[in-house]
Design goal:
- By secondary structure, this protein is of the alpha/beta class.
- Helices cover 44% and strands 16% of the residues.
- The strands form three sheets. Strands 1, 4, 5, 6, 9 and 11 form a six-stranded mixed sheet that branches. It has a three-stranded parallel sheet with strand order 7-8-10. A two-stranded parallel ribbon has the order 2-3.
- The longest helix is centred in the last third of the chain and has 21 residues.
- The N and C termini lie far apart (56 Å).
Length: 262
């Protein structure tokens, strides 16, 4: 069997106007894209090549595009789901189980409707916390419990897992496989290929600072862009390892506030 070439795009919140005026919202706004930009990105995605992670496991081959959405936010149902249906495109939605039904998040009815329409519901842990900041036994429990809870909600097998923030240790891939997942989605940028158990996916963020041309370059697999993003990822990973996640996030928040004030 020939290996598939998989390009994964990752989004968070999608909405009509996600440019908050309050400085405290600036950090989260970085990960949100306007609905108009999201629609423009979809113009570059062919329905023939767009698949879910579950489709890849089923043996889909060739050049594949996977659209993923993190956190299980309400905009997944209100903004993303209708556009995907209109374009006849599938998506993979990584949901934090404990947030289902909370204000601003999708509820069980909405997730079931999305799953029935061919969307893949996947796990983003239970409490939307960094696994690497937990004791190992708690992280293992988070991985397994989130799968069980989501499967009970949507009454379908949950095959894909993505750690919050993309932060993981190598042993977590094996822990996810032991829990029954067959796909482990990272935030390491680049192109993925099939092979290995579980299938480890690289993912490429589309942020509020990007435009449709940037997404089109990703979808074309431009090597210079992918290489640049990988170097940036490794530099940030080194900074996070040196400072620790709490200090890194605290510093990022302070820098964001300084940019707003200045």
């Amino acid at each position: 069997m020939n290996a598939s070439r998989i390009l994964v795009l990752t989004f968070h919140a999608v909405g009509r106007d996600l440019r908050p005026s309050a400085p405290r919202n600036r950090a989260s706004a970085r990960y949100a894209v306007a609905q108009s930009l999201f629609a423009q990105v979809l113009e570059h995605v062919s329905a023939d090549g767009a698949v879910t992670a579950r489709d890849i496991l089923a043996g889909v081959q060739g050049r594949c595009v996977v659209l993923t959405f993190d956190d299980g936010l309400r905009s997944d149902y209100d903004a993303v789901f209708p556009l995907l249906q209109e374009k006849r495109l599938p998506g993979v939605f990584f949901v934090s189980a404990a947030n289902v039904g909370a204000p601003g998040y999708t509820d069980a009815r909405q997730l079931c409707a999305m799953a029935a329409a061919g969307m893949e519901i996947a796990s983003h842990g239970c409490r939307h916390e960094y696994l690497i900041a937990m004791p190992r036994r708690d992280a293992v429990r988070e991985i397994a419990e989130s799968k069980d809870r989501l499967e009970q909600l949507v009454e379908q097998e949950v095959v894909s897992f993505a750690p919050v923030g993309g932060h993981f240790r190598r042993w977590m891939v094996a822990a996810a496989a032991e829990a029954g997942y067959r796909v482990f989605a990272t935030m390491v940028p680049g192109v993925s290929t099939t092979g290995g158990s579980p299938l480890v996916l690289r993912r490429n963020h589309v942020l509020s600072s990007h435009d449709a041309r940037y997404a089109a370059r990703l979808l074309r697999g431009e090597k210079t862009l992918l290489s640049h993003n990988r170097l940036r990822y490794e530099a940030l990973r080194a900074a996070k390892g040196l400072l620790g996640m709490r200090n890194y996030d605290r510093g990022k928040q302070l820098l964001t506030r300084w940019k707003v004030v200045s």
